């Protein structure tokens, strides 16, 4: 199945091959070699008070051998920008489930794109991004156009695609 909006950091085939999942044990490549630990910043948007989605994502990302900085709920755009500058993550994962993720995400990524120091930093977004709770054909395209590298709206395949995306993410020192 081809999911609109879900893209790979290094492998454009992931979009068309859909379910290809890569299993990685913490700190090791599938061939057993070591790679530098990647740092992932987990956040939500300013309006969103839900927290278990963030805890869940933190656990998923840690299982894939990454260090996580979790900013918790209701993160103002400016705080997120300063956290990116302070922590220098390899990836920012934005999760939102309250229905405003699409609008807040567009505003947030525009704010981020004003900072040239963050131009190299990939952002992805996922969860329940609209008020309808389902998927919308235009939302991922809009979010990708605005600057997100991946959009993972709630559906049965989104977590597996996200894991594949993360498994292929290079750390800053490998770029
Ligand atoms: C608990 C809860 C609350 C609590 C939150 C407490 C807390 N400390 O977290 C409270 C009571 C505060 C709350 C408030 C509101 N809530 Co609420 N809440 C829920 C509820 C019941 C459970 C959410 C939860 O914790 N799930 C467990 C976590 C682990 O799962 P999850 O959130 O679904 O996240 C999963 C996926 O979305 C996905 N995912 C999420 N982000 C990402 C990111 C990436 C990259 C990927 C790959 C995957 C991914 O992975 C997660 C695991 O599968 C849901 C209904 C439900 N059953 O889901 C409604 C729900 C999320 N809430 C909803 C709403 C509307 C609200 C309010 C607006 C209600 C209101 N009118 O006030 C407010 C918003 C407050 C705010 N400012 O954000 C709606 C959202 C509707 C939508 N988006 O379509 C839901 C779906 C209820 C419903 N069916 O209408 N809520």
How many domains make up the 3D coordinates? 1
Proper CATH architecture: 3-Layer(aba) Sandwich
Q: What's the pLDDT, averaged over the residues?
A: 83
Question: What gap, in angstroms, lies between the N and C termini?
Answer: 30 Å
CATH class: Alpha Beta
Biggest beta-sheet profile: 5 strands, parallel
The CATH superfamily appears as Cobalamin-binding domain
* SS elements, strand count: 5
Question: DSSP helix count?
Answer: 6
Helix content: 25-40%
Radius of gyration: 15 Å
Strand content: 5-15%
Attribute tags:
binds cobalamin; Rossmann fold
Describe the structure in your own words.
The chain has 175 residues and is of the alpha/beta class. The protein has a single domain, classed as Rossmann fold (3-Layer(aba) Sandwich), CATH 3.40.50.280. Helices cover 34% and strands 14% of the residues. It contains 6 helices and 5 strands. It has helices at residues 13-17, 52-63, 77-87, 101-113, 138-146, 158-167; strands at residues 39-43, 67-70, 91-96, 123-127, 150-153. It has a 5-stranded parallel beta sheet with strand order 2-1-3-4-5, sandwiched between helices. Helix 4 (101-113) runs parallel beside helix 5 (138-146). The N and C termini lie far apart (30 Å). The relative contact order is 0.22. Residues 10-27 have low confidence and may be disordered. The structure holds cobalamin.
